[in-house]
Amino acid sequence: MFSGFIFDVEGTLVDCVPQNLRSLQEALGRFGHQVPYTTLQLYSGLDGDQTLQLVVPEADEGDRKTILKVQGSIYEEKYLQSVRPFEGVRDVFKSLTERGGRIALATDCKGPALKHYLSLLGADEFISATACGDDVDHGKPDARLVGMALRKLGLPASDAVMIGDTPYDAEAALEAGAAAACVLTGGFAAEALVEAGCFAVAEDLQALLPSLEQSKVDPAREAPLTASAAIAQRRSA
Prior knowledge:
Layout: E1 4-7, E2 14-15, H1 17-30, H2 37-42, H3 48-55, H4 61-79, E3 84-85, H5 89-98, E4 102-106, H6 111-121, E5 127-131, H7 144-153, E6 160-164, H8 167-176, E7 179-183, H9 190-195, E8 200-202, H10 205-212, H11 227-236
Parallel strand pairs: 1-4, 1-6, 4-5, 6-7, 7-8
Antiparallel strand pairs: 2-3
């Protein structure tokens, strides 16, 4: 079994992807950018600045920062209180820690949102470390969040698995040297998650638990597509 279990939060532990995407869509609209929800879904979980570079390439760095600030305000004021935890998170955390595993969170969210998520989960006693948006400037697929979580756990990457809900979580995990597994609660198809490098994909965390409790995956497994390559492949299909 793995020794370390690094969990994404948004879309993996708490059900908030639609709210995040709607708040981003509204923020873009305030600045005259009409972007379809389905387009934003392709980049759900990607670093916010990178997302804006892709969907509104005409926006400069200052514009992107302003849009993201407005999006954060909309989300906290209009959507945050509607977020709910996914069922079974505490049970999964308890099972993993009872078997000797250590749990960390790796998420680019921060501030009031992260504090609210942690209160919803009510699982602080199982969490050994947290790497969040207050710690690094770059979100996934940048591997630094995962790397920081590993350092805080004091574990080698080969002993850990990152659990997320997007191809970007998988890419960050693999770049950091950890294994990757995903749930389908973020809106991505199982095929996209497998293409991005996940050794296991399941409907939710409870269904994923048996795969997390098995022996570590073969390090010689086939190299995956990067998240960006997987998206390009799906869009051209």
